[in-house]
């Protein structure tokens, strides 16, 4: 049974860590389940305890505690302990980081918009254009493109599919872990996989990418640069978003990932030249006709992408 994706766990609200442990229990190893049951029995004691104390109380080794934390999407025990402490202190926290319950609409609008702009500008500064060029070159030479994403990252994968198919590229988005696991097992060597994950620590997507690489397919990772997923990728586009997805619903990271996929789509459109432009025009003409547009509207659609 697959472990819940960190993005999915993060959407459960202020009690996300505890809810995530309960949801993950059936898929954990027996030794990891001992740690989970120990945490669930007394979650308030964990933030104050060293890893050795939790391991002793659960009757397992310290590496087992670390594996348990990583199975939930955390980098290790320290991050898990901090997330659990935030849960205990933030029982009535809002779903969006930085938003308070007493914020009025004007304040929360300004906060969300300002933070979105700041996050995208930070991503622009941190992105390596040489890696973007390498990613576009891989995509341009692919026989087909497969997009893997789960939870909030699945939305990004679906959006990228919507953009890329209009360029005439065979592309599919897999947002279910079992489905992309099966797809990775049969992906051809001349295909390219784009794997999207904020944390890069979801066991399902890391295993799927490893299968795809085993079949010879190149993999572009839109993920954290120091993650297990990044270690499996041919090219990593690792723009970081300052966001705590252990407690809050992913928002800023999703915007960054959407923008990165937009950059790749734009790069492919430019690389495709006149042929790609003509395909974009044809898709626009079909939309104009479907909306009951006039001949004048159709002519306008022919003037550009």
TrEMBL record:
Residues 15-91 form the HTH rpiR-type domain. Keywords: DNA-binding, Transcription, Transcription regulation. Residues 286-305 are annotated as: Disordered. One of its GO terms (molecular function) is DNA binding. The keyword Heme does not apply. Residues 135-274 form the SIS domain. SUPFAM superfamilies: Homeodomain-like (SSF46689), SIS domain (SSF53697). PROSITE patterns: HTH_RPIR, SIS. One of its GO terms (biological process) is carbohydrate derivative metabolic process. PANTHER family: GLUCOKINASE, HTH-TYPE TRANSCRIPTIONAL REGULATOR HEXR-RELATED. This is HTH-type transcriptional regulator HexR. It comes from wastewater metagenome.
